[in-house]
Write a structure and sequence with these properties.
It comes from Ursus maritimus. 48% of the residues lie in helices and 3% in strands. It has a two-stranded antiparallel sheet with strand order 1-2. With 147 residues, it is an all-alpha fold.
């Protein structure tokens, strides 16, 4: 979707606790090492570097974990799975967008994606693109932050 080139150097996921979980996946998007039955909040809590992490760091880590928990063993999302995540995990951003041309274009681009699967970078770009055009973002911008 974005045409960006990925870094050839993978980052290592550092987990604290169960030694089988920290057994050196070679990428943050490596095949699932934590069963889906473990909640995202517990998975976040198991990441030593995020114990004192910022809200933004935890938000990105949450996105990465949801992606990883939903991806196939190659660390990719099928189009149907991506659309399901949009409907179930991102519905407040997608509601009411169905008739907007930009939203339709984004979904068409997803359908026409040359590969049948999305990597993490493409999925993040899709989420950000939808968030930017959403009505919810406009509501977020209007929230009063000071008295």
């Amino acid at each position: 979707m974005c045409g960006c080139v990925h870094s050839s150097r993978d980052q290592e996921l550092h987990l604290e606790g169960d030694p089988s979980l920290s057994a050196a996946p070679t990428s943050t998007l490596a095949p699932r090492k934590m069963p889906k039955s473990i909640s995202i909040s517990k998975q976040l809590a198991s990441i030593k570097e995020l114990k004192k992490g910022s809200d933004l760091e935890k938000a990105i880590a949450t996105l990465a974990l949801i992606f990883r928990n939903s991806s196939d063993p190659d660390g990719k999302l099928g189009k149907a799975t991506a659309k399901n995540l949009l409907q179930t995990q991102f519905r407040n951003f997608t509601e009411g967008q169905e008739t907007k041309p930009k939203y339709k274009d984004l979904l068409s681009e997803l359908d026409e994606h040359t590969e049948d699967k999305l990597d993490f970078e493409d999925f993040m770009i899709l989420l950000l693109s939808i968030a930017i055009i959403s009505d919810l973002l406009q509501n977020i911008w209007s929230v009063k932050i000071m008295n």
